[in-house]
Amino acid sequence: MRTMAPMQRFDLRSWARHGLVTAAFSCAIALALTVTGQGAWDVQLAYSLGIGLVAWLVIDLGRHLLAPGSGWPAGWRGALLVAAGTGAGYVAGTALGDAYSGHSAPLWQREAVPTSLVITVLAGVAISFFFYSRAQARQLQLHMAQAQRDAAEARLKLLEAQLEPHMLFNTLANLRVLVATDPARAQAMLDHLIAYLRATLGGSRSVQHPLADEFERLRDYLELMAVRMGARLAYQLDLPEALRGVAVPPLLLQPLVENAIRHGLEPQVQGGRITVRASTRPGRAGMLLVLEVQDTGAGPAAPAPTSGAPGSHFGLAQVRERLATLHGSDFTLDLIAGSAGGTCVTITFPLQTTP
Amino acid sequence: MSTTAPRALIAEDEPLLAAALRHELAQAWPALQVVASVGDGRTAVREALALRPEVLFFDIRMPGQSGLDAAAELADAWPAGQPFPALVFVTAYDQYAVQAFEAQAVDYLLKPVQAARLQKTVQKLQQTLSSQAPAAPVLEATLAQLRHLLAAPGVAAPAPAAAAQTAPLSVIQASSGSQIHFVPVDEVLYFEAADKYVRVLTAGREYLIRTPLKELAAQLDTHAFWQVHRGTLVRASAIASVTRDEAGRLHLALRGRPETLAVSRLYAHLFKAM
Fold first, then answer.
1. Which of A22, B7, B53, B63 has its CA at a distance of 20 to 30 angstroms from the CA of residue A110?
2. Given B13, B19, B155, which is nearest A307 (Cβ)?
3. Residue at A116 is within a domain
């Protein structure tokens, strides 16, 4: 994650930008020194440009050698690099300045040494710190962007699993027909599609919703499928009045109903019937909620009829995982092959009525 | 264009979509006569053989038998010398299938079917029908296309899963009553799909297993076992001879079994003298 392909190469543009900033900073120092009467402007400029540019060359090239691609070498190596660059800048830059001004006394015999050294060190540290924090900020931005991309991708994958494109396009194809032939029915179908999409797209956001809402979402889905499958799909939703308010995880039963259609009814030429039922029964520690999804389809032993579609195991595993998150080991999930063909999936967990 | 009006068969399990395609076709190709509209693969094969239409529109996902399997079965059963119908696959969303169709230059329509796209398909179909190509090469080309489509990952068989990576199966475990027989794959002469079971035949015995043939085929050494029919996998080294009957169909005689096995047209290309 830390290294990124475009950063691996030597970044000529950021290198040149650093050089320009350094040169501008050196000019500012030379101007300040001239204004405060430290000597002729051109001589000051020669010294400060010499020191600044040598320090920049050493630090920026050293940076690339020590930590290719990632901005700055970490910890003491970075500090040492700045110190070495500043020192080299001071010695070599002073020599360059001497060559320009014709000054020939050795470095250690000059009165201006303390001042110019202090200026060099301060400027070197300041500029290096400036560049360092900017590089840090940029790195951080890249990481954030990458994290956002990863999160978006993960969401998209989940969504793709929930919202099978094949189902969506077939539904749209049916809608397209109905718009022309039966606008009223098209509108009803569109309303079911909107409710289904809203629940699927926003479903992960709420933790629980009433069982009545859960059954309404199943009705939306089954109505959409009923338009598509015509007489091949019959369905029945049994929700006792007393259980309408019971809180359940949103779209918990959805994958089970999808499986019943995809693996049960779709492979059968004659289609079949789906029954979703809610009831209660006494358990060891209070009442249990019993949710059943039953179909008269091909049965669990039949091979998956179509290509590319995720198997029924994906749906079942998803339901099991959600129940485990909410109830620990305090739930059951059973898949039973019916005696006369078909499949029945039964879920039980402790009944919690909303206050 | 032939002198008689061209006839078409639509195989689509969703009633509204079938009606819509029929309606769109009436606009795009008024001369085309839709002689049958069926809702599943098996009926499509039966009706196509009975009515011999010039054009077929096959949905990919259908109950009972997929459009692809139905096309393969139809190509196998099609009377020799008769021109094979022009075939158009219809699919809602299936990136694997679309890639495979593109690769094999098979005509296809995406649902929802749109008028402009359908118009192009109709033009292509009209060209094909008017070209009056000889029947045999057309059927051969269709067979080759279907063979490739059936073998393409994710189209007919599930996309290559982890199972395909493991070593080939060495033992078949077949239950009979309260016993499970272990049958070394080396002793198996052929596998034959039979309704909900697969028959496993050795020189002396027959066993039944529930693993579908497609799944089994993925776990067997493809050099040792050849697919010679949609429902038959035969050990190549157990084939004694191949005979061609009057109708041009191939039959295999086996070493160690008295019965002969029919070879599907789809796989006839495997049998040539060296």
1. A22
2. B155
3. yes
